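Here is an idea for our session: we take a single protein and study its fold together. Once you have written the record down, we can walk along the chain together.
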Amino acid sequence: MSESHSRRQFIKSSSLASFGSLGILAGSARGSEPDSVPAPERVSNTWSSPKHPVSISSKNGLVAVARAVERIKAGDDPVLGVVDGVGIVEADADDMTVGYGGLPNERGVVQLDSSVMHGPTHKAGSVACIENIMHPARVALKVLQTTDHVMIVGKGAYEFARAHGFPHEELLTEKARKAWLRWKQTGSDRDDWLDPDQMDWDEDGTRRIGGVDGFNSVPFTYGTIHCGAVDMHGDVAACTTTSGLSYKIPGRVGDSPIIGAGMYVENDIGSAGATGRGEAVIQSCGSFAIVQAMGEGMEPTQACLHVLRRIVSNSRRQKRLMRSAERPNFNVVLYALRKDGAYGSAAMFPGARFAVADENGARLERCAALFES
């Protein structure tokens, strides 16, 4: 017996002994549920599968939803449809918020994030801070398909992509480079580093009671594409991909690659996603909360509005994020798709639109708004 095999057997036997002493081996727990973990309350699932595939996306995803529905009609799994759909936008140099041509971080380097989730298996894959790879959503899908991991980041994500045959590509276009230079020349004092009077904490680590005042208006771009889809069997999948907050601190990760924040799927309920201020979505577990709200009986649009209210409530704790006592100075748009094909979207403020494709074709529709103006 090899030394490595012997060590593995020792660890395995030790672990089983430890678990066995706690009484939580699969065999000993079979047929019983711990009283301290009650089942979540859910409405009775009477949703029928849609007669036609349905796909929903952010405003920049009109071509994505059309492609997703096309792939599903051809018999493909919905996860392949949404990844293929967002891939069109990732390769579009004119969309400066996703993939090729995306706006860079503060050092002029394009770093991309993406996540994918497959409802029938409840598996997810994601990559963050990946550089020189045009299609992070496809890499995230490879993480889902070929590994036991969920997230791979940075250099490791790049090497993983290269191992799977993804080409090394320069993602900073001339258009994006000039935009970055303009920011460097005219707006470099407006970045993600908080000024001393914007901080909630003093340098000695003492929290400032009551927070700080001050409207922090930063002309950055929060750009992302989310795409969710359901097929005629009621199977659901979703994907979110982005170049992230423009001119961000290198290594910053937003909500897009985080399962439960920028994207989430439960096959017996539906999917959800988010675009806008990622930090606010992360801190409220936005997409997870939408899916849970739908599971408890809320319609998709109402579930989005419910989570927006939560985001606003949480943001009031940081006064620099509020335009007034009630309204934030940032936007978030949320998207929800139920397994029966019902869908909805809501934004903080009026005027936002989202893309949807179903038996009536691909089109843009208006998002509901939390605030009237």
In short: Confidence is low (pLDDT under 50) at residues 1-37, 208-220. The chain has one domain: 54-178+214-369.
